[in-house]
Known about the structure:
It contains 15 helices and 17 strands.
Amino acid sequence: MSATVIENAYIAPVTGPEIPSGYLIVDNGRVASLGAGPAPRMPGAERIDGGGCLVTPGLVNTHHHLYQWATQGLFQDSTLFEWLTGLYRIWAGIDAEVVYGAATAGLGWLALTGTTTSSDHHYIFPQGRGDLFEAEVRAAREIGLRFHPCRGSMDRGRSDGGLPPDEVVEDRDAILAHTAETIDKYHDPSFDSMLRVAVAPCSPFSVSEGLMIDAADLARRKGVRLHTHLAETLDEEEHCLAQMGLTPAEYMDKLGWLGEDVWFAHAVHLNDADIRRFAETGSGTAHCPSSNARLGAGIARVTQLMAAGAPVGLGVDGAASSELTSMAGEMRQALLFQRAVHGPKAFTAPQALELATLGGARTLGRQDEIGSLEPGKLADIAIWRVDGFRAAVEDPLCALVFGPTPPLARLLVGGRTVVENGELRTVAHDGVGRAGVAARNRLLGKEL
């Protein structure tokens, strides 16, 4: 791979001061150097004119359900439990073809809106429907994003006091066996890994205590991370208090599910003691403001979590509860929601960018590799166009965070171009959206 020089750009490295006019050099898939002023001469290097552009680290999405691309726009006015109850039986019909098409569209959308690394939490595995995990891994490889798929699971159906219908849950031993096989087949712990697997039982209201304990043991034996939903709604808290006698966070603590190798989706309803425990143990949170607002779940205490030192990243969540949401859009939502509660000084544009980049990297355990623009880190870079109408905004970072998502001039993953001038370059651009529509039509039985 030849070297690439980005020049004449406004650079926001996240870990250092912003550079109003400078350069960044990529070599062998990593950031080689960056600085103010003209770029050095490098014969043979590709040169990208960053005039009118803002250069940031690629965004890191810490929570998603890619298969849900096929069920957007349904149950628009429902609470979480109402929404889940309505969708479980539809999701029971997914197969590998639906997952592949939905993942292709979902990951393509993330790339087009600045994301270079994405997690995914897939927990529906109907029998006899093909290799669903392989389908989303294949989609990620084709789009070209770093991918952290989580082998999710549910073993606690309605007959055992859980929320999901019995037909969408699995046997605990089968879950653990397939999860172990998946880790062995796909997980790559290397520095520049494009694929890392996590273990992710779905939630306290759909998973047995035994599976939560066994899953944590498996993940730690295999050296991979743990993920689950937690404290998303007051309904969940009432469910846990009624059935376990503990709040959701207390229940996780009891099961040994707090630690630097764990991150939770949502964590909206945490008390002060929970926040202290998250900080003490290094337990991470994937903040999903748009989904939480759509479902009326509340606003996570992000300001307090960050002040305490707990890892916090951003997530778009599944598209069925967060239609067409971009990671850049979630930066804006996170900033506005925290200010709405705590005032205009509570959360700044640089903090929002950090949440979407280095915060996400820390949440996924990759802060030494991605999330900031520093020499030696992987060259996962977003180049945003902030010229035209956006040039009237005094601060380019303000234009990115406070305004609508700018178009991308370029998106690099490990120095490789994934998006250029607003179009995907790794796959046929026009086919990505169609793949998502085909997945929706197949799942819902609509005519093409």
